[in-house]
Amino acid sequence: MTQINNNHFLSRCPLCSSSEIYLVGALNYRYNVKFSTHIINFDNIPQLWTCKNCYSGFTQNAITQTDAETLYSTGNGTLRWSGTKFEDDKPKEVSSFFNTFLKNGMKVMDIGCNTGEFLDFVKDKKCIPYGIELSKDSREVVLDKGYKCYSDFTNIDEVFDVITAFDLFEHLYQPNSLINFCKKKLKKEGLLIIFTGNIGSINAKLAKNKWWYTNYPEHVLFASRKYYSQLDNFSISTYLKTYASQSHEALHNNSSFLNTIKNILQGKFTGNPALFKDHHLIALKHMP
Ligand SMILES: [Zn+2]
């Protein structure tokens, strides 16, 4: 077990830099939580905060970026995150969206590619797959599949038709470095596609600081639709509300509406099973 001094505390919104930020509430977390494959414990109580200007949310008393990167890069992502096929993991409407535009020969970069599940999907569509992955163990699996895979944003000479980030944005301490990378490495009218939890969803609004997706300490950033819509040099070309995965969708379909309402009234609602779709896919067209 590793004891962590989780003292990453911000005076401004990490997305729009507004100082109009306020506390939503303390975050629920268990002792001896898992971060990647490490068991860790904390000095401070984590909190969920929100921004009055861009409506995004973020974690205070997060673990520091340095600690997070060390834990990810030394953790074994191949054990922690399942290698389920992309089209069996993500909701059908997400795969269908990619089927509408992925074409022969397109260069597709997946940031945070884990063991290459989306890259396999991309290869089936006759596109050229590229990945970035921080975890050494996961990267080796991707390289063994024969795909190009980098450890970070540096030393990449290619320019891409599509850049994707699945289940990644919520982990970012410096979202601007990802956005700036995409501005440099996306072709004109190329697409940046982000898939993450939706803090503007009814689930998140009802669950507040009890929202399951805050998932302390791994998730630290919950960007709103407004944030994505105001990014320089990008415009939203597709906005799709969806579920975290097919299993979350199944959980929603099999849940008891009455139980959910009871939980909401008793202040116990965590947003899981979801009452409505609680994730979003945002496709941003690059307009340099
Ligand atoms: Zn903000």
Explain how this protein is built.
The chain has 288 residues and is α/β, with parallel strands linked by helices. It has one domain (78-286): 3-Layer(aba) Sandwich (Rossmann fold), CATH 3.40.50. 28% of the residues lie in helices and 27% in strands. It contains eleven helices and 14 strands. The protein has helices at residues 65-74, 77-80, 86-89, 92-99, 117-124, 136-144, 175-185, 202-207, 225-229, 246-253, 257-265; strands spanning 2-4, 21-26, 33-35, 38-42, 47-51, 57-60, 107-111, 128-132, 148-150, 160-166, 186-197, 221-222, 234-242, 279-286. Strands 9-8-7-10-11-14-13 form a seven-stranded mixed beta sheet. The chain has a four-stranded antiparallel beta sheet with strand order 2-5-6-12, with no helix packed on it. The longest helix has 11 residues, at 175-185. The chain starts with a strand and ends with a strand. The model has no long low-confidence stretch (mean pLDDT 93). Bound molecules: zinc ion (ZN). GO terms for molecular function: methyltransferase activity.
* Number of structural units classed as domains: 1
Strand content: 25-35%
Overall number of strands: 14
The description of the largest β-sheet is:
7 strands, mixed
From N to C, what is the helix and strand string?
A: EEEEEEHHHHEHEHEEHEHEHEHHE
In DSSP terms (H or I, runs of 4 or more residues), the helix count works out at: 11
Helix content: 25-40%
Distance between the termini: 47 Å
CATH architecture: 3-Layer(aba) Sandwich
What's the CATH topology label?
Rossmann fold
CATH superfamily: Vaccinia Virus protein VP39
Return residue spans where pLDDT drops below 50 for at least 5 consecutive residues. none
Overall 3D form: globular
- Assign the structural class, choosing from mainly alpha, mainly beta, alpha/beta, alpha+beta, or little secondary structure: alpha/beta
CATH class categorisation: Alpha Beta
Radius of gyration: 19 Å
Strand order of the largest sheet: 9-8-7-10-11-14-13
Mean of the pLDDT scores? Answer: 93
Give the ligands present: zinc ion
Protein name: Methyltransferase domain-containing protein
Keywords: Methyltransferase, Transferase
Pfam family, one: Methyltransf_23
GO molecular function, one term: methyltransferase activity
